[in-house]
Write a structure and sequence with these properties.
There is one protein chain. By secondary structure, the protein is mainly alpha-helical. The chain contains twelve helices and three strands. A three-stranded antiparallel sheet has the order 1-2-3, covered by helices on one side. Strand 1 and strand 2 form a beta hairpin. Helix 9 runs antiparallel to helix 10.
């Protein structure tokens, strides 16, 4: 079986698993684009190659946010706007979106460039989260908002924890001050990747607890480190 045929078969299987009508007709062009990182598209810049998933990610981000807001509004009818906003922020953040992408096994279908592949980019939380958003965008274009929002609820929201924690750095700051009477200390520990896809690594220490994280910006790397430190402190 050729590589192209095998990919189309795998995309149709994903479509069937997600209950998409397009899978029955064999039209998987949008799914193919959703699972194509810009690094791959850049290396295969020809008319026959799939476009990258950046535009679909932009669209899917809006759909995920709207679907989460609707779901939270119905699930927590007595909560004020501020708390609902914090819950939504948690649900649409990178870590839970990446977890959903991993659970759906999108890593196996995600195409990235050679540099990203060498750096195991398919497993990077930022790329996985963006890929899930692109997938939602593809479903929205193919089958409309109801189908896309339904998939977000079924495949993501019902598996995620709708917590209402603040930004992890803020939460760690508050916890560190209360428990250790000191502020967390952050340090940038690394920087790698091509210019168009930099990856920063950070470390945070508070008391004897250390958290590490990585991301496309220093802020996101620190947030991931703070999330890990918070998890350790709560164990």
């Amino acid at each position: 079986m050729s590589e192209g045929l095998a990919r189309r078969k795998a995309l149709r299987a994903l479509g069937h698993r997600l209950g998409l009508k397009a899978a029955a007709t064999g039209d998987c062009a949008l799914l193919d684009a959703a699972l194509t990182h810009d690094s791959y598209a850049f290396e295969h810049a020809d008319p026959k190659a799939a476009s990258s998933n950046e535009r679909l990610e932009f669209l899917g981000d809006a759909v995920v946010g709207a679907a989460a807001a609707d779901w939270l509004y119905r699930r927590f009818p007595d909560e004020p706007e501020g708390r609902l906003s914090r819950r939504r922020q948690t649900l649409v953040s990178r870590a839970p979106l990446a977890a959903t992408a991993a659970r759906l096994e999108l890593t196996a279908l995600l195409r990235v460039g050679k540099g990203e592949a060498a750096a195991r980019g398919q497993q990077r939380p930022s790329i996985l989260a963006s890929t899930f958003e692109a997938l939602v965008g593809a479903v929205f274009l193919a089958e409309g908002y109801d189908a896309a929002a339904g998939m977000v609820q079924r495949e993501h929201l019902e598996h995620a924890q709708p917590g209402d924690e603040a930004d992890p750095r803020t939460a760690l700051q508050e916890l560190a001050q209360a428990r250790f009477k000191r502020a967390p200390l952050y340090a940038l520990t690394g920087e790698s990747g091509p210019a168009h896809a930099r990856v920063f690594s950070a470390r945070v220490s508070v008391g004897k607890v250390v958290g590490t994280g990585s991301g496309p910006t220093k802020k996101q790397a620190q947030a991931e480190a703070a999330t890990q430190a918070l998890r350790k402190l709560k164990e």
